[in-house]
Specification:
Length: 466
Amino acid sequence: MTISQANQYVEKNKHKVNTMYRLMFHAMPELGWMNDPNGLVFYRGEYHIFYQHHPYDSVWGPMHWGHMVSKDLVRFTYLPIALAPDQEDETGCFSGGAIVDQKDKDQLHVFYTKHFDKNGLIIERQGLATTTDGIHFEKNSKPIIDVDLIAPHGLIQDARDPFPFYENGFYYVILGSKDEHNQGKFLIFRSKDLKTFTFHDALIDPIMKNSMAECPDLVKFEHDDVFLFSRIDFTKQKNRNISEYFIGRFDIENKKYKYEYQGLIDSGHHFYAPQTLKDDQNRVIMIGWMEIWGDPNVTHDLGHEWQGALTFPRELKIVDHQLLQYPIEEIISYRKASRKLEKGIILEKCLDLEIEDTDTHFSIKFSDPKDQENYFEIGYEDKKFYIDGNQLKSNALSRKESRNSYDSIKLRILIDTSSFEIFINDGIEAFTSRVYMESIHFMIVTNQNLKGTVHQLVIGGDESNV
C-alpha cells in the first residue's frame, strides 16, 4: 500500500460520500474511516491535524495517516495522506505525535507506531518520519525504538502511540503499553539526537490494572502538570473504553511523580484518544476522537462511505487544581444570527447554545419536528445534569449523569449535524455524543422558561466542512 495509491483512491471515490450526517465545523475524513487524532501541532503558521485513516473503506483497516490543516480550527483543508504502511515491517501506521525540530524549525518530525500483524504474529515498533514542507514525509529506514528496547519493560505486541516532547536537552517519547499481568503502564525513552534512544523509566499506577494504557499526552502548566491517557477494555466501568487524566507533578527527567487528582475527561458517549497542542498564543488545545470503540458505525452501516469525526477543539486550563475545558473562542466569529431560547422554536442543526445559570430543575428535548417522539434529551434534576438518548429512533443512547453534583448550572452546547458537545459551568465537566436524526432541524421542547441564547452558526466556504 503506497501513499500514491491511497491518494488516487480518495480522489477517484470521494464523490460517493453521502452528506446527510456530514458535520459543518468538525474535522472528519474526506472518504473512508477516521479514528484517533495524531500529531497535533502548530507548524509554519497553521494547525496540522493528522489522524488514523483507512481510505479504502469506512471501517477500521490498515492504518494510514490522514492530514488536514486549518488557520482557525473551524474550517479545514485536506492535504495528501501523510503516511501509508509501505515498509516491510509495518501493516499499519498506528497513532503517534509530532514535534518541531529544536535546531531547525523548518523540520517537523512525526512519531508513529509501526504495527505489524501477519499470520497471528503482532509486533509494535516505533517509527519516525520527517518533513520540511509540511506535506511530504520521509520515513527512517529502521525503527527508532525497536523490540530490543521495549521487550524488557512491556509487551512487544502492545507498545504504541508515541508522544514526543523536548525538555532540558533531550527528546522524550512516552509509549502506552502493558505487561504480561495485564498491568497498564507507560514506557519512557529519550534521545539527544533523535537517532539513538535509550529506556528511561516507566509510569505505573494501580488504577491501570486490567487495562491497556494507550494514547499518552503530557501538558505542563505553570503550577500543575496534566497527564492524559486512554484505557481500552477497562472492565470496571460501564464504558469499556475511557479517557482520563492525572493532575500533579511529572518530573520526567528526575523520575519523580506526584499524583494529586484523577478524573474522567468526558462524561458522554463518544470521546476517546485525546491529544493536545500548544499554539502561537501559548494556548493548550485538546482534540479527541468523537466516537468510541464498540458502538455502531452509523454512517458506515448506512452506506455513506465515511465514518468518524474529531471533537471541536477545546482550550484546557487549570483553575484551583481543577481541569477545565471549553470550546476555543474562534467559533464565536461564526455566529451569524442570535435569538432568545424559547419553547417550541425550530432551528437548523448548526448551533452554539448558551443557557444562563439556574437552580431550577429542567429538561430540554431536541426533537424531530415531524416526529416529536424521536428526541435527544438533556436535563438537570436532584443536582445532577443528565443526557438521555433512549428515545432516538436511530442509534439510541443510554442515559448518562454528571459525576459532580451542582447547586446551580449553566450550559454551553455546540450542536452540529450529528453531534452534541455540552460544557457545564465553564468547563468543569463535558459531555460528547453523536446524535443521528434525519431531519435537518430540531424542535426545542422544554418544561421551564429558561434564560438562554441560541446562536446560529454559518460556516461555509471549505469542502471539508460539507
